Amino acid sequence: MSKYYSRKAAFGKYVFDSRKERDYYVTLLAQQRIGEIKSIELQPVFELQPGFTKNGKRYRPITYRADFRVRYKDGHEAIIDVKGYKTKVFRLKQKLFEYKFPGKELIIV
After folding, report:
1. Cβ 48 vs Cβ 64: under 8 Å
2. How far apart are CA 2 and CA 86, in angstroms?
3. Cα separation of 80 and 102, whole Å?
4. What are the φ and ψ backbone dihedral angles of 40, each rounded to 5 degrees?
5. Which segment of 4-13, 39-48, 67-76 scores lowest on mean pLDDT?
6. Cβ contact 51:81 at 8 Å
7. Backbone torsions φ then ψ of 20, nearest 5 degrees
8. 58-95 pLDDT per residue, tens
9. Would you call 83 helix, strand, or coil by DSSP?
10. What is the strand order of the sheet 105-108 is part of?
11. What own/partner pairs with CB < 8 Å and gap ≥ 24 does 57-65 have?
12. Which stretches within the chain are classed as H helix?
């Protein structure tokens, strides 16, 4: 069990961080089967700040890994994150994401 009391949950060949995330994936698959969703990408990564070097020290990039990127039949795209609890780190990354990707829809479930 994680520090946020979630348990890993499997579905097919995938293992999700929580049962809530797995159940949401099953819902997305049902929507895909009826044609509402064109594609589902698991764990897409977005670079929020590139890596850099300062005074000889190398700083790694800051990235955000969402749970899903969903492309709908009408062409729009949504980035979806299934959360049981919003940590301080997540809140900061959410602000950075919204700033860097103003044209992308971020949905928190």
Report:
1. yes
2. 14
3. 15
4. -130, 125
5. 4-13
6. no
7. -60, -45
8. 999 999 999 999 999 999 999 999 998 899 999 999 99
9. coil
10. 37-42, 68-72, 77-81, 105-108
11. 62/93, 62/96, 64/93, 64/96, 64/97
12. 19-33, 88-100
